[in-house]
């Protein structure tokens, strides 16, 4: 299944990620059985069969063109808004953390940000140049690639309100530029260009504003006062139902502080589940299910998860390079 690709990689890159002699076309770093708990904000998750850190955008396109069609592929940014099960992820994980990080002004006065740029860096980039409109990004603990994929938002702002156009790449490695109007965007949802992943975006500044840095400080202070930023979490677990807040429903159902093993409904914000230090992905996933069941029974509201749950519950055979 994955073996042909594994053999192809193994013939060119050694198991510690260094290159063998020869004309290896890839310049990134390849790891085997990489524990994904080291790459997720919840600090849980089993291993990835293969974990690739591309050197840059061109290297990413090259590795995509090398993947056989049957090779499972998963993209990973900062690992927030994500629960990787204890069995890990089969196939190849491509990580953009500290990769694809170009952030600059464009000739037309807009802001260009690659998919691996943390959202908070974009907020700071705007504020340092007295540009308005991106302050809310300081409250999103992820990268622009993830923010584009789910229309991430915080403090009343949403990512796609800033987007002018995006660059995407598909499985065979073809790059396209698409206008924002080509996508159907809603609350925490983005539809369009199936089979493509976001490489970069061009953002619209909202005019001159010298108070951006102060507003970011205020928003971060508000986040620290209301959210459990001192413990590992994924951010908000559930979407807010129309006309209500998931945190209110969970708290009024008596679940604030409810624990299961090392997983706990935060005592500070009920729409956060925190890892108190020993949680497993299975405990977190079970707790998510219990919260949903309880809120449905008490309030008659079916909460939808905002967090993405991926991977296998149990580990199969170990990958060998």
Keywords:
321 residues, alpha+beta, Uridine Diphospho-n-acetylenolpyruvylglucosamine Reductase, domain 2, Uridine Diphospho-n-acetylenolpyruvylglucosamine Reductase, domain 3, Uridine Diphospho-n-acetylenolpyruvylglucosamine Reductase, domain 1, 3 domains, 5-stranded antiparallel β-sheet, 4-stranded mixed β-sheet, 7 helices, 18 strands, 24% helix, disordered N terminus
Radius of gyration, Cα only, in angstroms? Answer: 20 Å
The CATH class designation of the largest domain is Alpha Beta
Number of helices: 7
Total beta-strand segments: 18
Distance between the first and last residues' Cα: 15 Å
Strand order of the largest sheet: 6-7-14-10-11
The total number of structural domains is 3
**Which sequence of SSEs, written as H and E, runs from N to C?**
HEEHEEEEEHHEEEEEEEHHEEEHE
Shape, per Cα inertia axes: globular
Biggest β-sheet description: 5 strands, antiparallel
The fraction of residues assigned to DSSP E strands is: 15-25%
Remind me, CATH topology of the largest domain? Uridine Diphospho-n-acetylenolpyruvylglucosamine Reductase, domain 3
CATH architecture assignment of the largest domain: 2-Layer Sandwich
Helix proportion range = 10-25%
User: Ranges with pLDDT <50 over ≥5 residues?
Assistant: 1-6, 10-22
Mean pLDDT: 89
Could you explain how this protein is built, in words?
This protein is of the alpha+beta class and 321 residues long. It is built from 7 helices and 18 strands. The chain has helices at residues 3-10, 57-66, 119-128, 144-150, 212-226, 246-252, 281-299, and strands at residues 29-35, 47-53, 73-76, 82-84, 89-95, 103-105, 111-114, 153-154, 157-158, 163-170, 175-179, 184-186, 189-191, 196-203, 259-260, 263-265, 273-275, 308-310. The strands form 6 sheets. A 5-stranded antiparallel sheet has the order 6-7-14-10-11, sandwiched between helices. A 4-stranded mixed sheet has the order 1-2-5-3, with no helix packed on it. It has a 3-stranded antiparallel sheet with strand order 15-16-17, with helices on one face. Strand 15 (259-260) and strand 16 (263-265) form a beta hairpin. The chain starts with a helix and ends in an 11-residue tail after the last strand. Residues 1-6 and 10-22 have low confidence and may be disordered.
């Amino acid at each position: 299944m994955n073996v042909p690709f594994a053999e192809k990689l193994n013939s060119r890159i050694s198991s510690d990620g260094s290159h063998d002699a020869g004309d290896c076309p890839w310049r990134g770093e390849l790891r085997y059985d990489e524990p994904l708990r080291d790459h997720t904000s919840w600090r849980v998750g089993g291993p990835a069969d293969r974990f690739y850190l591309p050197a840059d955008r061109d290297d990413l396109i090259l590795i995509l063109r090398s993947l056989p069609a049957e090779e499972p592929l998963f993209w990973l940014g900062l690992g927030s808004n994500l629960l990787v099960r204890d069995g890990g992820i089969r196939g190849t994980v491509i990580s953009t953390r500290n990769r694809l990080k170009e952030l600059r002004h464009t000739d037309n006065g807009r802001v260009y940000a690659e998919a691996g740029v943390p959202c908070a860096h974009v907020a700071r980039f705007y504020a340092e140049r007295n540009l308005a409109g991106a302050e809310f990004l300081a409250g999103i603990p992820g990268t622009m690639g993830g923010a584009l994929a789910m229309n991430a938002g915080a403090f009343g702002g949403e990512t796609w309100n800033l987007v002018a156009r995006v660059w995407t790449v598909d499985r065979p490695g073809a790059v396209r530029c698409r206008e924002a109007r080509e996508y159907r965007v809603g609350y925490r949802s983005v539809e369009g260009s199936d089979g493509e992943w976001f490489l970069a975006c061009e953002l619209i500044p909202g005019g001159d504003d010298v108070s951006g840095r102060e507003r970011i400080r205020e928003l971060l202070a508000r986040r620290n006062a209301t959210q459990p930023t001192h413990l590992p979490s994924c951010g908000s677990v559930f979407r807010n139902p129309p006309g209500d807040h998931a945190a209110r429903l969970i708290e009024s159902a008596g679940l604030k502080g409810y624990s299961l093993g090392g997983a706990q409904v935060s005592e500070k914000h009920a729409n956060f589940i925190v890892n108190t230090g020993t949680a497993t992905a299975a405990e977190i996933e079970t707790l998510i299910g219990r919260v949903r069941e309880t809120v449905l029974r008490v309030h008659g509201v079916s909460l939808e998860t905002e967090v993405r749950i991926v991977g296998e519950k149990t580990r199969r055979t170990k990958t060998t390079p």
